[in-house]
Structure formats: C-alpha cells, structure tokens
C-alpha cells in the first residue's frame, strides 16, 4: 500500500476504535445526561455480551493494524483538545439565531436567548483553549 492508502485505512481504523469506545461508554454512562436521557433497556447479560464484543473488536483492530502495517501516529493531546473545541464552537455558531431562521420564523426573544446561552458555552470553551494554548 502507498502512503495514501495507509492514511485512509488508519483513519478508518481510528474512527472504528472511537465508535467502539463510545459504545462501551454507553454501557456505563448514567441514564440521565445533561442533554438527553438513555433508556435503561439492556439487562446485565446483554451488557456483558456487548462489552465482550467490544473487546473482540479491539483485538480485531490490533490485528488489522499489525497485519496491514498501519503506522500509529502520535497525536498531540493539546491539538486534539483544540480540535474538539473548534468543532464544538463551529457547531454552536451554526446554531445561532441567524442560522435558525432557516428553519422558519424565530421570534427576537427566542433568538436572543439561544444566542445568549450559546455565547455562555462558547466562553467556557475559550477558557479550555486558553488552558491548552
């Protein structure tokens, strides 16, 4: 494989690993989160089976990485945090009142509240950026 092939395969394996991590977190996360509620609809045996499947998926990822000789690049923790903040900030900017008007009329009061709470969250995220600067 050439370097472009390796980068493509590496990116896919990384995304699969992140999905497996999220699946496993869903098994242990509290049912009530800040922005959503999880139905507690898995019994203990199903949780164990899913956890075991996640472990098998990780083993398969290791096997794929080794067999395909995919390079494991070192990532900057600071850079990864900056990336997460940047993505979140961009999503919030795209959710402010001017963008919401594309979904239909929005009262000035509602738009003001949306913008205010999103600005408050943005301020906290900027604080995170300052910490990793």
Describe the structure.
With 133 residues, this protein is mainly α. The protein has helices spanning 3-28, 44-67, 77-93, 97-100, 108-132.
In short:
The protein has 133 residues and is mainly alpha-helical. It is built from five helices and no strands.
Provide the fold topology.
Elements: H1 3-28, H2 44-67, H3 77-93, H4 97-100, H5 108-132
* Number of separate domains: 2
Helix-strand category: mainly alpha
Q: Give the tally of β-strands.
A: 0
Count of individual helical segments: 5
Rg calculated over all Cα atoms: 20 Å
Mean pLDDT: 93
- Structural shape: extended
Characterize the main sheet: none
Low-pLDDT stretches are: none
Distance between the termini: 37 Å
Helix and strand string, N-terminal first?
HHHHH
Descriptive key words:
single chain, 133 residues, mainly alpha, 2 domains, 5 helices, 72% helix, 0% strand, extended
């Amino acid at each position: 494989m050439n370097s472009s092939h390796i980068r493509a395969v590496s990116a896919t394996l990384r995304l699969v690993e992140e999905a497996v991590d999220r699946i496993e977190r869903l098994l242990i996360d509290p049912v009530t989160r800040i922005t959503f509620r999880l139905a507690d609809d898995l019994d203990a045996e199903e949780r164990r089976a899913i956890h075991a499947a996640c472990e098998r998926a990780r083993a398969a990822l290791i096997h794929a990485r080794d067999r395909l000789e995919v390079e494991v690049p070192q990532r900057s923790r600071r850079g990864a945090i900056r990336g997460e903040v940047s993505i979140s900030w961009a999503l919030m900017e795209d959710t402010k009142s001017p963008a919401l008007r594309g979904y239909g009329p929005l009262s000035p009061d509602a738009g003001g509240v949306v913008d205010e709470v999103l600005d408050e969250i943005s301020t906290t995220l900027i604080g995170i950026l300052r910490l990793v600067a």
